[in-house]
Specification:
CATH topology of the largest domain: Four Helix Bundle (Hemerythrin (Met), subunit A)
Largest sheet: 7 strands, mixed
Structural class: alpha/beta
Number of domains: 2
CATH class of the largest domain: Mainly Alpha
Radius of gyration: 26 Å
Shape: elongated
Length: about 425
Amino acid sequence: MLVWIDAVQCGRAPKIFGLTLVERHLQALKRSLPRPARVVVDLGSDGQKPKIDPSLNDAFPIEWRQESGDFAARLERFLTESGDMPVMLLDGTTLPDARLHASLTGLADSVAVLAPKDEERAAIVRLEPGRLNNATIDAADLPALAVKLLAAGTVRAYGQGEFNGFIRKLRRTIPYYMFRVESADKAAKVEKFMFWSNYKGSTDFFTRYVYPPLVWISVGPLARARVHPNAVTIFSIILALGAIPIWAIGETWSFWTGFAMAYGMSVLDSVDGKLARLTFTDSRLGNFLDHGLDMVHPPFWYLSWAYGLGLATLGWGSTLGLATILIMAFYVVDRLILKVYPTFFQRAFHTHSKLDGRMRTFIARRNITLPMFIVGYALGYALEAFYLIVAWQILTAAYHGGRTFWILVVDRAHLKDRRPTDVAAALKQVD
């Protein structure tokens, strides 16, 4: 496939999270399979080539052109040389959902995708070879061309019904979106929309309602400074692991220092994921570090809290020692139980139903047990809070075990080919 990007407005269109709209197109194409054979970026007669991630040049050949003439003339010249290859036409003032590029690459017919909201005037067109042979292109821009081709029956409309909007990592279904971005005000609104669209559909109360303001003011500057999310992840690992020996000291100052480090890590745990997805910098290493940290550190936090509360003096045979053994054991059991569901459904347990999505809000996870312990410690009931957390972890494992048994053995839902449940709140569209 050949790709043509009308980038006449590239130097004037605002950036989104530090990336030009042209680079966002290129990054999305890099993640499409099969990748384009060649990408032509038409800057017009006086356009300037933007800076892009050097890795894009290794993904596919990119040809930067400075062509004279209006939209129709420049496009006709490109189509003349396209030969017997399908083409995808993109607009440098349009920000489409990055998943659309991959979806259209896999098709075998001619389609036009229009923005879900008509006032956006945005479109993508995919053409099979020869679809415009002997036809005069009479349009001022790509959205106008898409409308004309649809009206003439030259292409068919591509709609939400054939688009797979489920995102496994986010545990939610998001319809595709497309925006025309020509002003700083519009760019700011689109950035907020994209920020919220990258939150998981089922997550804990604090990640959803408490941390977002801190995450929001962090992601924008980091994206514009081109800070790699792995750097954020590594810093969060230092905070998460550094808090463990500090809590174990057992002094008032050490507990509060550890709490501050833990909350810093919790916020950064949201920052690195958003930054990676919004700037196309996600990687296997980043996912491994991020999710590996999430899986490994909680039992060590619990063990550290126990030592800070006097486990070394009381011993493992004490009530505190037995409680520590229980929470660490049931944490592992709980995690193992949650590995069963995805082997049948290829998605996370908490997407199965709205009930399971709601339960994810307050089950025993770091962002719930940490504030429980802090409140108990502040009120002088640290030991009681620790026992409550142990009980909460046991109940969480029991719920996951019972629900998994019901879903797979009693209801046998894996044999009923059910669609994923959208447990996320509806997204707000850009005004």
